[in-house]
Amino acid sequence: MVMLDIDWDDLRLFRALAVHPTVRAAAAVLGISHSTLSRRLDRLEHQVGAALFARGPRGFALTEAGQALLISVEAAAEQFDSGLLKVSGLDRRLEGPIRLTLPDFLAFYCLLVPLRRFAQTYPDIDLEVDISYAASNLDRREADVAVRMVALDGSPPETLVGRKVGVSYATGYRAANTESAACWLGWAADDDGAWARQTNLPDMQVRGAFNHAELQHHAAAAGLGMAYLPCVIGDNDQRLVRLPKMHPKPARDIWVLTHRDLRETARMKVLRDFISHALADARPMLQGQI
């Protein structure tokens, strides 16, 4: 089958001229000049290989080829309009899948119970939850909505849209059944301990590599060392106690994000709003206000 590379705007011009069979009237409807209309009509007739109008003193009259093309164009326009309505309706309906990605500790301590209410309120939305810290999976369309930790006063990638909904505070913790701990738990093999020097125990050695917040959490509870943790983790485990004279400090901003193409989709909007309200309710816990 031969596919003609025809500009849809030229077909709109053709439809306008079929309804308003003078160059002046059709050009006025389309908002273009007479010469532009004539030039584009000549181009369209050249592309289809047939005269679409018979020119006469009283205007333009469709030829047999023009009548056949008009039937096809009207049918295509009707299908296109129908498709737009269906797509628009899908975006407005509160049903269908949503892939949500978020850090594990925000899921465990702040959002799983609210998400149960969300599922009860919107039973036709199929929620898929993935634990991840990476913003890139939104760019790759591996998720629709993301809750992300962003550097204080930082911004998410430009390809994503959303808003800051809170701040995660952190402080130091040790196992409750020990009087002291011999070291800070490192986050990576090449951890230089710069973060530890910002605490009130700057000279304490940083040892090991525990590269995940929940891993640090359980390692500290097991007595392997001190951990600098989000307050929402440390304060919710009775096996841990805060280090003395160390007050919670802002550590990361919390953002709710989506891809630009999905920001007006109704089910995405209700989930983003729901999560934003849930994290606002959890603010005292996130800020370590015990």
Average pLDDT number = 86
Q: Structural class of the secondary elements?
A: alpha/beta
**Biggest β-sheet strands, sense, barrel:** 7 strands, mixed
**What's the shape?**
elongated
- Helix fraction, binned, reads 40-55%
Number of strands: 11
- Unreliable stretches (pLDDT < 50, length at least 5) are none
Q: What percentage of amino acids are in beta strands?
A: 15-25%
CATH class of the largest domain: Alpha Beta
- Count of alpha and pi helical runs: 10
The CATH topology of the largest domain turns out to be D-Maltodextrin-Binding Protein, domain 2
Total tally of structural domains: 2
What is the architecture of the largest domain at the second tier of CATH? 3-Layer(aba) Sandwich
Order of helix and strand elements from N to C terminus: HHHEEHEHEHEEEEHEHEEHH
Q: How much is the radius of gyration in Å?
A: 31 Å
